[in-house]
Design brief:
14% strand, two-stranded antiparallel sheet, EC 3.2.1.39, TIM Barrel, 30% helix, globular, alpha/beta, Glyco_hydro_17_plant, single chain, 8-stranded parallel barrel
Length: 346
């Protein structure tokens, strides 16, 4: 089955998936491995100190930021919030110079360690194989890794990159997931690096874009975790939602690329509250609540293994675009009012 996905930044990208889709599964109980992305493409957001306090007051113990914003890093001191720190795509080329990578690590990590709890460095976000910046991703990762090791932080902070599902050439069935010829030359050496260093692959997973890209074949309940019963069987594995299918397709692709020991961290996932027909408060609320309740279950390929997952995003961002939905992925309005009721992050 072929299915379409829309890349969040470009709004159009191709997902391959054939068929019908999957059901709802919710749980309660243990602490959930949930973080929230702190996007800042807006002119009306609270101060970084207020944002950090807001994370803490809402029981959110994990944050992703997209650049080494000094005000954010200062605000995080002493909070113990686990951090994914991003390297902007525009900085990748400069970090292929070892001395520049060393300076970057000294200025943005060593200067704040150990009072900031760095967990991962995301070297680039959704860099496509066709992007000229793709040639710089792995060298930048290697140089940052070496700089961290020189600073005696190599064992504590993992170096990775964040990718979109458009890298998958085949996604159905999930057991046949693969990167394909076009993506393999780019991602396979990165997978080898991750396998060697014990770092996870960071993956942005958006059932919303898959659904709006092919609503005739992808059922809304499959994307929202609300379908009843198993939608398709992949050998011995029963699939019940699109989120799990995407993640497991990546696990299969990693195995095929020599990364059977590489774990996945979902570095972004979300659902907009307005901007097009499927983007409603009800749908977004359903997605977030069911996802948060689901992540401790693992996936059919990794049952019982809690999935570290970062929701996108903390606040609506009024300077994003061009699509209207891009401005409405926030869990909260910029005045810190919740958009959805009864969502618990812990």
């Amino acid at each position: 089955m072929d299915f379409l996905i829309v890349n969040r930044t470009l709004m159009i990208a191709t997902y391959l998936f054939l068929g019908f889709f999957i059901a709802n599964h919710t749980i309660t109980g243990a602490t959930k491995p949930i973080g929230v992305c702190n996007g800042r493409i807006a002119d009306n957001l609270p101060s970084e100190q207020d944002v950090t306090s807001f994370y803490t007051s809402n029981g959110i113990g994990k944050m992703r930021i997209y650049d080494p914003n000094q005000a954010t890093l200062q605000a995080l001191r002493g909070t113990n919030i686990e951090l994914i720190l991003g390297v902007p795509n525009g900085d990748l080329q400069s970090l292929t110079t070892p001395s520049t990578a060393n300076d970057w690590v000294q200025n943005n990590i060593v200067a704040f360690s150990p009072t900031v709890n760095f967990r991962y460095i995301a070297v680039g976000n959704e860099v496509e194989p066709s992007d000229p910046a793709s040639q710089y991703v792995l060298p930048a990762m290697q140089n940052i890794y070496n700089a961290l090791a020189s600073a005696n932080l190599g064992g504590e902070i993992k170096v990775s990159t964040s990718v979109s599902a458009s890298l998958l050439a085949q996604s159905y069935p999930p057991s046949a997931g693969s990167f394909g010829a076009t993506s393999s030359t780019y991602i396979t050496p990165i997978v080898s690096f991750l396998a060697t260093t014990g770092a996870p692959l960071l993956v942005n997973v958006y059932p919303y874009f898959a659904y709006i890209g092919d609503p005739q074949n992808i059922h809304l309940d499959f994307a929202l975790f609300t379908a009843q019963g198993t939608v398709f069987q992949d050998g011995a594995l029963a699939y019940q939602n699109l989120f799990d299918a995407i993640v497991d397709a990546f696990y299969s692709a990693l195995e095929a690329a020599g990364g059977a020991n590489v774990e996945i961290v979902v570095s972004e996932t979300g659902w907009p509250s307005t901007g097009e027909a499927a983007a409603t408060v009800d749908n977004a609320s359903t997605y977030y609540k069911n996802l948060i309740n689901h992540v401790n279950d693992g996936t059919p390929k990794k049952p019982g293994k809690a999935m570290e997952t970062y929701l996108f995003a903390m606040f609506d961002e009024d300077q994003k675009g061009p699509a209207e939905t891009e401005r409405h992925f926030g869990l909260f309005s910029p005045d810190k009012q919740p958009k959805y009721n009864n969502i618990s992050f812990s």
